[in-house]
Prior knowledge:
single chain; alpha/beta; six-stranded mixed β-sheet; 24% helix; 24% strand; globular
Amino acid sequence: MRLAFFGDVVGRAGRDGLAEHLPGLRRRLGLEFVIVNAENAAAGFGITESTAKELFEAGADALTLGNHSWDQKEALTYIVREPRLIRPLNYSAFSDAPGRGAQLFETPGGKQILVINLLGRVHMDSLDDPFAAVDKELEACPLGAVADAIVVDIHAEATSEKMAMGHFCDGRASLVVGTHTHVPTADCQILTGGTAYQTDAGACADYDSVIGNQKEEPLRRFTTRISGGRYKPAEGPATVCGVYVETDNSTGLARRVEPIRLGGRLSETVPAVEAVAVR
């Protein structure tokens, strides 16, 4: 099975970058399922119905969220109507958070893929234990028995927490990938148990920026400790950053993983694959 995951889409530039590059990538790589983290898609903060529809139209099959899930209040009702939108799994049962933190999808070819979104707790919002939450979900929907592939998006600040989650899920998920810090890491690998892993997928954003935001306000705050206004997404050409994974059809574990970087300012990296039929 051929999958791709794309990191945090930041504002209009990120949405436009995906719209430009994702349709061609789906054809070129023969992608059967595409997941996009979209928690910064609406002007850098949260998601709206219209911005989600842009990403679906570009070729995303599922959207994950994170600590900005509810910055746009319409997301609270939209997520109830849109099963392809996934918020962090580890909200407390007492929080009344709408939507779902895990969803089993079926590809056009009849394969089942489980998508899980988690929020880390180190230097982040204080939610329930993400390790206990994902353990319960993986036990309920085991890889190779119920799900043909499982992708875990760990939206977290700390590298150590993301790495720990990768090893915790090793052998039970096809891919564990970090989001939130917006900078693609160089540790793309297959762990010893067969799970593909990357600490951060990077962002779909203009990288002439501070993690996707226009430079002036972050620089002002760092140098003067005084806020001059809201952060605003940078508006130049976006680099589309993500991860490509091929899984074994019988076990669902990874047999290949490579980073994706296309367009914008970063050097381009796109997996070379044999020709496949357009799906």
